[in-house]
Amino acid sequence: MSAVSVTEDAGGPADPAEPLVVLDNVNKHFGALHVLQDIDLTIARGEVVVVIGPSGSGKSTLCRTINRLETIDSGSISIDGKPLPAEGRELARLRADVGMVFQSFNLFAHKTVLQNVTLGQTKVRRTPKAEAEERARALLDRVGVGNQADKYPAQLSGGQQQRVAIARALAMEPKVMLFDEPTSALDPEMINEVLEVMQQLARDGMTMVVVTHEMGFARSAANRVVFMADGRIVEEATPDQFFSNPRSDRAKDFLSKIL
Ligand code: ADP
Ligand code: MG
Fold first, then answer.
1. What is the per-residue pLDDT across 164-213, written as a single tens digit (0 to 9) for each?
2. Which ligand is nearest to the CA of 29?
3. Which residue in 2, 36, 92, 249 has the fewest CB atoms around it within 10 Å?
């Protein structure tokens, strides 16, 4: 694999016969709050799933259960055929298959951009430093911040920082990338530069779960829209179907407020 290739099967269409992430009847509570209710969701290799829904509907919690930042109470989650284990080395290994990009960029403030993108590779993957740096530079180029490698995060714009965060996640060669409102904290003029990187990633065949309010992105990049409300998946459809002909009242109500 070349240093800039980030997916095993670049460019391939989503293949429903190849489930990569499978959530089966997942339930989770926060105390009395039933935050995820009977969630069944299968994401195919190469598929881009956009998750939308009102604030508090459980979108972030859903993402966090997929990389096991949150435990679940019942049901099961598997990634590439392997059940997500509770703990230990197996968990660390499986978690490395899942890249995550948050609303707040979460870069290490006291490390340079280059160090941010090499650290996980050398510490977790035990990649030799020179190889990790070569890969990091290629990824930073790819997301358009190759000339910022020696700066510290605070010296970059929000859009640049978020692109570094994407490069950092990609450096671990994840099988699936989770994006939780990656542009919500950005000034408007920086949103597109991040969405364009995500669009390119989608075109290259990365399997992606994207929580976003950017409906233009959902329309153009998603294979499927999943609409959540009150901890449930209320509706799933292609973007065309969903935006032109939402079936549920909840989705109609939500769309009437944001479009
Ligand atoms: P969304 O991302 O769709 O806005 P979240 O998954 O963040 O929704 O939250 C869903 C619900 O769970 C909200 O009511 C939120 O207040 C609650 N919640 C989220 N995280 C926690 C937590 N760690 N402890 C208790 N309640 C939480
Ligand atoms: Mg959220």
1. 999 999 999 999 999 999 999 999 999 999 999 999 999 999 999 999 99
2. 1
3. 2
Other Cβ atoms closer than 10 A to 75? 16
- Which one, of 99, 242, 248, lies nearest residue 170 by Cα? 99
Angle value at C-alpha 90, between 109 and 81, nearest 5 degrees: 110
In what side-by-side order are the strands of the sheet with 98-101?
A: 98-101, 176-180, 207-211, 48-52, 224-229, 232-237
The whole model's pTM is what? 0.92
192 is written with which tokens?
């597109």
- Cα(117) to ligand 2 centroid in Å equals 25
**Measured from the CB, is residue 212 less than 6 Å from ligand 1?**
no
Classify residue 169 as exposed, middle or buried by CB count within 10 Å of its CB (0-12, 13-18, 19+).
Answer: buried
Distance between CA 127 and CA 117 in Å, rounded? 12
